[in-house]
Amino acid sequence: MTIDVLIADDQAMVRAGFGALLDAHEGIRVTGQAANGAEAVKLSARLDPDVILMDVRMPELDGIEATKRILGPSYPAAKVPRIIMLTTFDIDDYVYDALQAGASGFLLKDALPEDLVHAVRVVAAGDALLAPSVTRRMIAQFAAQKPRASHGAARLAELTEREREVLVLIGHGRSNSEIAATLFIAEQTVKTHVGKVLAKVGARDRVQAVIFAYDTGLVAPS
């Protein structure tokens, strides 16, 4: 299956470079480019991309607001895309807010070419881009600065003890295989627990689960 990608960045050279790189890989096709957030919202609704590379800071409409609109309930397109936030710096409060809005991860603009391609494939497959440890560090840092979410307590109470253990390990960035080894259970069992955790806490993916774990205080920033 071909992965359709929309690139949203106010720098023409960045759009051209990322576009050429992605188009050169089998199974990935860049279907559109946007120079600002407002254009990204319009093109996303018209082109129905699988993945959007979204710059955080853009004129007219920044990346976080564009992400909120694209992933909001009034989004008119046939399918909801996965969004990867692009940022120049590894710590950016805009990125944390974008992750809360439903973005599937973030990538530094100076990342290696293979990392960009990998990121597109990962989120297109429905996974969250949590591999870089800086993602967890960023979430922890900004979660510590924000008031603890009281609305999450009821959802947290719905989890079984085992599901809470799994959520804690997700919050620490552990993979399914690592969780299985830690809890001495089968990886397939972990996948079942993860699915139940995401459903009960209302998370779209593991990034959302990590944010929930920090926001509710289940995992403390270190």
From TrEMBL:
Q: SMART domains, from UniProt?
A: HTH_LUXR, REC
Q: What single Pfam family name could you report for this chain, choosing any that match? A: Response_reg
4-aspartylphosphate-modified residues are 55
Ranges of residues in domain Response regulatory:
4-124
What is the top-level taxon of the source organism? Bacteria
Query: Where do the HTH luxR-type domain residues begin and end?
Result: 152-217
| Keyword Membrane carried by entry | no
**Keywords (A to Z) from UniProt:** DNA-binding, Phosphoprotein, Transcription, Transcription regulation
Stored InterPro entries: CheY-like_superfamily (IPR011006), NreC/VraR/RcsB-like_REC (IPR058245), Sig_transdc_resp-reg_C-effctor (IPR016032), Sig_transdc_resp-reg_receiver (IPR001789), Tscrpt_reg_LuxR_C (IPR000792), WalR-like (IPR039420)
Q: Which PANTHER family match?
A: TRANSCRIPTIONAL REGULATORY PROTEIN NARL-RELATED (PTHR43214:SF24), TWO-COMPONENT RESPONSE REGULATOR (PTHR43214)
Annotated protein name in UniProt? Two component transcriptional regulator, LuxR family
